[in-house]
Structures are given as C-alpha cells and as structure tokens.
Amino acid sequence: MATAAAHRTTAEAQAGEAERTAAYEAAFDAAVAADERIEPRDWMPDAYRASLVRQMAQHAHSEIIGMQPEANWITRAPSLRRKAILMAKVQDEAGHGLYLYSAAETLGTGREELLDKLHSGRQKYSSIFNYPTLTWADVGAIGWLVDGAAITNQVPLCRCSYGPYARAMVRICKEESFHQRQGYELLLHLSKGTPEQHAMAQDAVDRWWWPSLMMFGPPDDESAHSAQSMAWKIKRHSNDELRQRFVDIAVPQAEALGLTLPDPDLRWNEERGQYDFGAIDWDEFWNVLKGNGPCNEQRISQRRTAHEEGAWVREAASAYAAKHGKAAA
Ligand code: FAQ
Q1: Model's pTM, two decimal places?
Q2: Whose CA is nearest to atom 7 of ligand 1?
Q3: Which residue has a Cα nearest atom 32 of ligand 1?
Q4: 174-194 residue pLDDT tens
Q5: Phi, psi (rounded to 5 degrees) for 214
Q6: What angle do CA 68, 70, 71 make, to 5 degrees?
Q7: From atom 52 of ligand 1, which residue's Cα is the shortest distance away?
Q8: Disulfide-capable partner of 216 in 112, 202, 243, 316 (CB 3.0 to 4.6 Å)?
Q9: What distance in Å separates the CA atoms of residue 90 and residue 71, rounded to the nearest whole number?
C-alpha cells in the first residue's frame, strides 16, 4: 500500500511538473510571437539557451580574434592619424568582445569556460579572421567589406528576442558603422592616389571580397541552425538573404571607390531588382572551418599566448577585488 501511494505521489509530482513546463513553454512562445524580449530570469527552453550561448560565444570570440589581423598594422600605419584611428578601432573590438561575453554570462555560462572552449578548438570564431593582412590596404578592405558585412548581419540582431544580446548589439552596430566608414575612406584615398596605391587597394579588395561573402554562413539549404533560430527570432533573416543585401549595398560603393569586385558574373537582375553574383567556393569555407585556413594556427596560438601572458592581470584584479570586498573578477 505504502509503495502504491509513493508511486502515485511521484506520478502526480511528474504530471504537475510537466504541466508547469507546458505553461512556461506557452508563455515563452507567446512572448516570442508578440516580439517581447526574453530576459535572463525568464524561463526559456534549454535548446534556446544553448543555441544563444553557441552564437554569442562565436560572436564574442570573433571580436577578440578579429583584433589580430588589423593589430598587425598598428606599428606600420603610414601616419599618426591613421595609427590613432586604427588603435581606437582595434580597442573597440575588444570592447565588443567584453559586451558579448557579459551578455553570454547572463545565460549562466562564464567567460573562463567560453575562452577555454575557444582555446581548445571546441567553439568557433568567424572564418574571415583566418586570412592574412598582407598590405596596408587590407586595413581599408577589412573596414569596408568585413565591417560592412558585419553590420549587415548584426543590425537585425538588435531585434533579437534575447534582451541582453539585442541591447549589446545596439552599441556594437554604432561602432561598426564608424569602422566601416574609416575603411571606406582609407580605400578611397588609396584608390585615388598613385597607380601603385590604386593597385594595392584593388589587390586587397580582390582578396577580401569572397571571404567576406562567406561570413554570412553556409547557403540556406545547408544552414543547420537557421530555421530554428528564425522561429525563435534570434535570427531575423536567413544567411542568403543577408548575403544578397550586402552584395546589393557593396556594388555601388565599389563603383564610387573606382574599384572592381572580382566576380565576372556580377550583374544587375532587372526582374529580381537585385544583383546576381557568381558561385561561392564552399569547399574553401568548410576547409577554413575545419582549421585549414591560411592563418588558423597562428590566430589560436597567438590568442592562447595572450591569455597566458594576461594571467597576472586577472590575478591582480582578483586580489584587488578580494581586498576591497568585491566579488572576484
Ligand atoms: N565562420 O547553421 P549555420 C565581427 C558555422 S563579425 C565560422 O548557418 P548560424 C566584427 C556555424 O556556427 C563576425 N563558422 O549557423 C569584426 C555553425 O557551426 P556550429 C562575427 C561559421 O549560427 C569586424 C555552422 O557553421 N559575427 O566579428 C560561419 O545559424 C572586423 C552552420 O551554420 C557573428 O558571429 C562563419 N562565417 O548562422 C571584428 C554574428 N558561418 O555552431 C573585428 C552573429 C557559419 O553548429 C574586425 N552570428 N558558421 O558548430 C550569426 O549571425 C550566425 O551565427 C551566423 C551563422 C550567420 C554567423
């Protein structure tokens, strides 16, 4: 008898739990449908939380790894003005990483854990940062194309259903917009400069164009996460939609710069009201994701070294916080 009663109690408790979860789930779905923000203390499906951590971590890692290709040129910037601008930009990227790691922390995942996953290759960062910056014009091409692609992808993230991520994106997009314009202005100067400078600008655009298109992720029919992320309103547009939007913005800008985009199939499609463009080399993209891009090893080893060399700063900050009765950083 006692055992039957115990079973009944367990079954009742399980039924009650399932009912509560269904009610939480219905409230979550209704909030997403009504375009309300999900906040850290709200109930959310485990898979929603996990997918957000995955995307936000990859985004944060991209910001801090993305400091490396341009930082390579700080000491060789051609003037004090250019050096100051580039330093400010690279510093901004560090700040973006911090906002995003902090936003990910609101989901219960600490920065140490995320950095550990980056350093051990268990989490990704954007494919674009595995390409080398060979000349000064690359700084311009990164600003114009890479930051331009980043803005196109990130403006819709300001309306992401998860509040802390959406709010972090507002400031990030404002700063990316400044970055994009500095790159454009730099390339304009080179393009209108000496024939050698023009050639250097063209060469940089030739090398950065296709990898920039790959930043938007695989084609829609190969994008594992898009359908669910769009249903949850984490993503508002598909990878291909945003890629097309970027191409349509970039073509007239290239004309104004006096530079050509390295795609013989690029042409206006009157019917679609959009530009057609050539086939992307997806083998190259997947290969870079697997770790075989030109700079993958260099980027990760430099990141690990920077982390190890910064250990004393973290220790000092923790000691200071302990001394002053604050929570350790
Ligand atoms: N690189 O199913 P999907 C910047 C992975 S901007 C590497 O389509 P999803 C600013 C993807 O994670 C760059 N991996 O994935 C800056 C997934 O793998 P998983 C960062 C990529 O999430 C400028 C698999 O492929 N921006 O840093 C890439 O729905 C200048 C299947 O893909 C963001 O992270 C890629 N390009 O869509 C800094 C924006 N694409 O996780 C310095 C936020 C896809 O299953 C200097 N993220 N993968 O192992 C997003 O909008 C999305 O995550 C996408 C990918 C659109 C990137």
Answers
A1: 0.94
A2: 126
A3: 223
A4: 999 999 999 999 999 999 999
A5: -75, -20
A6: 60
A7: 55
A8: 243
A9: 7
